[in-house]
């Protein structure tokens, strides 16, 4: 029992050590690297460790089988981890690009999303008259009353139905979102059952080419154009709100998106809404609104990625332990000779650790490179908060690659520690006789 609890305590300490290493900021990691480099080049023990490391690295080609186990195992961990985190980053980046601080979205008080918000038609003109909203060249408020309807369309992948957001916008909807560009066809005409398609939705669903007709709400709608926004609107279908509402028997709007009048526009609008008892509404910048929409899924993906990465990391640690134990056993005579020549325990421990860390670094770089080549820019879709598909791209950023490298080095640190201690404790006379 004493040995069991001792082993359990050791494992827990290693887990804490690995977690602490992964959480270290970049400047702390740099400080550790600089300290190790100074010790290797400025002290006698460090110079001995450096020479022992050179001998171990020179023998790696003779141990390519065991070395490749470490490299490939760690590459798998890093590749999966970075790919999972890249999915969350891509989804978050898509929603973050959808909003900015120059526009605001108005919802019913207490509503967290458009799906559970209702703004009556008699409130719309009251909102347009409030201060803080920018006005166009014609003097009208740049306010777009909007509603959305989730509809089913067949996917290009396998023809199964999936949800897509069918958004009705007001006349000012285009002016409020100047990032939307028509890339094919034209805009829809107000009052007609015409649709423009986001480029992401066109890639994801069948039958959305310009000129084709869709049967929605038992009515025929004509696709007249394709737009590109490079944000979550790329996943939507757009039409006139005054046409979409009656088609689905909707007598109210769900939100009003407005262009703010200068830097003080948001404060003026928020104060005006709070001061009007007829308007029990909340307002937020579109940047904050869409940022909140991405939080839940991004956290879930990050947790799943970390858990999966941790499970794979445990396997990689055991693989590294087995490989390095085998390497130490195979080099028993070599290590004993170094000890006999005056290499003390610390240089030997350092040499084995540095060898393992080098293999871990190679595995981390390989895994990060594979994740970037295979997944960076890869387009997928998932359900957003409005229960419709949001098309986005994986985003393998330098920060994620750095996280993967820290995981790789952490695995190498843990996987090389026990074999390094065994090498340092190897009895010289026994090792020379057994060899």
UniProtKB/TrEMBL annotation:
Q: Which domain of life is it from?
A: Bacteria
List, alphabetically, the Pfam families matched: FtsX, MacB_PCD
ABC3 transporter permease C-terminal domain mapped to chain residues: 307-427
A molecular function GO annotation:
transmembrane transporter activity
According to the entry, every stretch annotated as the MacB-like periplasmic core domain falls at: 69-273
- GO cellular component entries: plasma membrane
Q: What is this protein identified as?
A: ABC transporter permease
Where are the bilayer-spanning segments? Answer: 12-43, 64-87, 303-328, 348-375, 407-424
Q: Where in the cell is it found?
A: Cell membrane
């Amino acid at each position: 029992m004493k040995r069991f609890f001792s082993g359990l305590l050791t494992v827990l300490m290693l887990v804490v050590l690995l977690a602490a290493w992964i959480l270290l900021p970049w400047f702390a990691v740099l400080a550790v690297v600089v300290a190790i480099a100074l010790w290797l080049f400025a002290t006698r023990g460090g110079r001995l460790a450096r020479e022992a490391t050179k001998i171990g690295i020179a023998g790696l080609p003779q141990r390519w089988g065991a070395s490749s186990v470490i490299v490939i195992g760690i590459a798998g961990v890093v590749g999966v981890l970075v790919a999972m985190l890249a999915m969350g980053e891509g989804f978050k980046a898509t929603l973050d690009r959808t909003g900015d601080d120059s526009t605001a979205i108005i919802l019913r008080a207490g509503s967290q999303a458009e799906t559970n918000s209702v703004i009556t038609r008699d409130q719309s003109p009251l909102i347009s008259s409030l201060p803080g909203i920018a006005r166009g060249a014609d003097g009208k408020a740049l306010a777009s009353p909007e509603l959305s309807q989730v509809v089913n369309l067949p996917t290009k992948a396998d023809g199964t139905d999936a949800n897509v957001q069918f958004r009705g916008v007001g006349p000012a909807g285009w002016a409020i979102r100047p990032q939307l560009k028509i890339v094919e066809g034209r805009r829809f005409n107000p009052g007609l059952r015409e649709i423009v398609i986001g480029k992401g939705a066109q890639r994801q669903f069948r039958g959305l080419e310009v000129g084709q007709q869709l049967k929605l709400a038992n009515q025929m709608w004509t696709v007249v154009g394709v737009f590109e926004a490079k944000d979550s609107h790329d996943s939507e279908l757009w039409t006139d709100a005054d046409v979409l509402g009656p088609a689905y028997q909707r007598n109210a709007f769900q939100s009003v998106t407005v262009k703010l009048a200068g830097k003080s526009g948001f404060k003026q609008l928020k104060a005006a809404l709070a001061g009007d008892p007829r308007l029990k509404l909340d307002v937020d910048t579109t940047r904050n609104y869409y940022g909140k929409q991405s939080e839940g899924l991004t956290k879930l993906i990050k947790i799943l990625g970390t858990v999966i990465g941790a499970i794979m990391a445990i396997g990689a640690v055991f693989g590294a332990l087995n490989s390095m134990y085998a390497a130490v056993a195979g080099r028993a005579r070599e290590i004993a000779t170094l000890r006999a020549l005056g290499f003390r325990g610390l240089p030997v421990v350092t040499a084995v650790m540095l060898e393992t860390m080098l293999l871990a670094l190679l595995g981390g770089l390989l895994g990060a490179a594979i994740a970037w080549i295979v997944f960076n820019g890869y387009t997928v879709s998932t359900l957003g908060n409005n229960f419709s598909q949001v098309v986005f791209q994986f985003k393998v950023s330098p920060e994620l690659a750095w996280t993967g490298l820290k995981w790789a080095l952490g695995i190498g640190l843990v996987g090389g520690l026990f074999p390094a201690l065994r090498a340092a404790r190897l009895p010289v006379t026994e090792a020379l006789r057994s060899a």
